[in-house]
Amino acid sequence: MTETETPVPIVDFRLFLNGDKAEKETVARQIDEAFRDVGFVYLKNHGVAQDMVEQCFEWSKTFFALPLPTKLLAPHPPGGSHHRGYSSPGLENVTQHTYDEAELSTLRKTTPDFKESFESGNTTDASQPNIWPPDTALPGFRTFMEAFFPHCATLIHHLLSALSVALGVPDLAPTHAQSLFQLRLLHYPPIAVEQLREGRKRINAHSDFGTLTLLWQDGVGGLEIQDPREEGRWREVRPLEGGVLVNVGDLLERWSNGRWRSTVHRVGLPPAKGVREEREGGKGNGGEGEKVVGDRYSIPFFATADPETVIEALPGCWVEGREETKRFEKVTAEGYVRMRMAALYE
């Protein structure tokens, strides 16, 4: 993808990491504008080594290629209070602000996400200990994931500092000091094109519920974001080689009093190059075969504030002295995230 082929602004983060005060302010302003406009930004020169990203994709492919019984040696616990371990296809169903139990039950049965995932978090997070497969099942997997996590966390802290510069407020990074973040590996198995054309999504339309999300995706494509200026229009977001996609979560939208957009997105039918034709009985069998979208892998990294952090409109995002200009009631980070996570799983 070239830089003119994306609805998402591309920002060179190197100048924030290594630049002077004026350069940092310029980058911070660019990110602020992107978050206000579309809720997403592509960062290049972001500080996470590309070879580590590529290794993470290789580990992901290796893990998901394991037999199901082996993956289930690290099972995601029932419910959404402990968000770690392996989830098989159909276990998780992403919804958009649906909390009614009866409605959730219906959605889980009729529109399951077509994906499988593995979650891990900070090794110091006692509230949600990691659930790993035995080392004998996949030697080196746990070691690499634990080493990759802090690189992603460091980028989150730098981004929070950039947003603080944009608003002219005290550094927000300390509000995420515990780094209670989530590293997720995602695999979307092959699926018939016809299913996607009939409305099924590899992951249903949703917004993220934390503060910031980093996303690395492979070259298959299929990610779409909802156009904030034209209801019902979806725009393709192609992968950017060497770049990381960053988006605003619902909690950050609340915190910024709506200044930054938590944009709805989904994964559906990719460009034609991601589609192949399969014939019953194998190749060379003649006749027209079924069109199939191949495997897709992505690596999202979800961030949220420390549990006790009170989320209410930041200075500069509302009119001082006019309480009615605050659009959202204040919440704690923990209370809001637990409510959203509980809606994901049965």
TrEMBL record:
<keyword id="KW-0408">Iron</keyword>
<dbReference type="Pfam" id="PF03171">
    <property type="entry name" value="2OG-FeII_Oxy"/>
</dbReference>
<dbReference type="InterPro" id="IPR026992">
    <property type="entry name" value="DIOX_N"/>
</dbReference>
<keyword id="KW-0560">Oxidoreductase</keyword>
<keyword id="KW-0479">Metal-binding</keyword>
<feature type="region of interest" description="Disordered">
    <location>
        <begin position="113"/>
        <end position="132"/>
    </location>
</feature>
<comment type="similarity">
    <text>Belongs to the iron/ascorbate-dependent oxidoreductase family.</text>
</comment>
<protein>
    <submittedName>
        <fullName>Clavaminate synthase-like protein</fullName>
    </submittedName>
</protein>
<feature type="compositionally biased region" description="Polar residues">
    <location>
        <begin position="119"/>
        <end position="130"/>
    </location>
</feature>
<feature type="domain" description="Fe2OG dioxygenase">
    <location>
        <begin position="179"/>
        <end position="305"/>
    </location>
</feature>
<dbReference type="InterPro" id="IPR005123">
    <property type="entry name" value="Oxoglu/Fe-dep_dioxygenase_dom"/>
</dbReference>
<dbReference type="GO" id="GO:0016491">
    <property type="term" value="F:oxidoreductase activity"/>
</dbReference>
<dbReference type="InterPro" id="IPR050231">
    <property type="entry name" value="Iron_ascorbate_oxido_reductase"/>
</dbReference>
<dbReference type="Pfam" id="PF14226">
    <property type="entry name" value="DIOX_N"/>
</dbReference>
<dbReference type="InterPro" id="IPR027443">
    <property type="entry name" value="IPNS-like_sf"/>
</dbReference>
<dbReference type="GO" id="GO:0044283">
    <property type="term" value="P:small molecule biosynthetic process"/>
</dbReference>
<dbReference type="InterPro" id="IPR044861">
    <property type="entry name" value="IPNS-like_FE2OG_OXY"/>
</dbReference>
<dbReference type="GO" id="GO:0046872">
    <property type="term" value="F:metal ion binding"/>
</dbReference>
